[in-house]
């Protein structure tokens, strides 16, 4: 039986998967009567492995799985144990900030063009052993054709 997250992710991949999109020469996405610059995913992660330390690798692998080109990745660990990081992508960016004392990570993924950011989320959830993941999707720059 699929978990709620697996089911939601499957539905999102079906709706927003590459097969349902037309990507223009300027990397906008055409969908129905609209075009937009890209999908901006706001991800709240509750409950995760606090011993996890390979965040730069996480950003690199998540980018690759989404079909994005990683240009630069940087992470910083604070004295408190929290970690922040950013991946600059040819298709935009991914960033995160952890609050281990709150068992929470705020993740942000914005990608344009022929990418699949939901595949990155699936990997991130598995890699961090996240208990719960909430996703909000914003279609940036959405206008009628």
Structure in words:
The chain has 145 residues and is an alpha+beta fold. The protein has one domain: S-adenosylmethionine decarboxylase (4-Layer Sandwich), CATH 3.60.90.10. The chain contains 3 helices and 10 strands. Strands 5-6-7-8-4-9 form a 6-stranded antiparallel beta sheet, with helices on one face. A 4-stranded antiparallel beta sheet has the order 1-2-3-10, with no helix packed on it. Helix 2 runs antiparallel to helix 3.
List keywords for this structure.
single chain, 145 residues, alpha+beta, S-adenosylmethionine decarboxylase, six-stranded antiparallel β-sheet, four-stranded antiparallel β-sheet, 25% helix, elongated
- Sheet-strand content, in percent, reads 35-45%
CATH fold field value: S-adenosylmethionine decarboxylase
Spatial order of the strands forming the largest sheet:
5-6-7-8-4-9
Q: Describe the sheet with the most strands.
A: 6 strands, antiparallel
If helices are DSSP runs of H or I spanning 4 or more residues, what is the number of helices? Answer: 3
- Mean of residue pLDDT values: 88
The coarse overall form would be elongated
- Secondary structure: number of strands: 10
Tally of separate domains:
1
Q: Provide the CATH architecture.
A: 4-Layer Sandwich
Element pattern in H and E:
HEEEEHEEEEHEE
CATH superfamily: S-adenosylmethionine decarboxylase
Helical coverage, percent range: 10-25%
Distance between the termini: 40 Å
Calculate Rg over CA atoms.
15 Å
Sequence stretches where pLDDT stays below 50 over 5 or more residues: 15-19
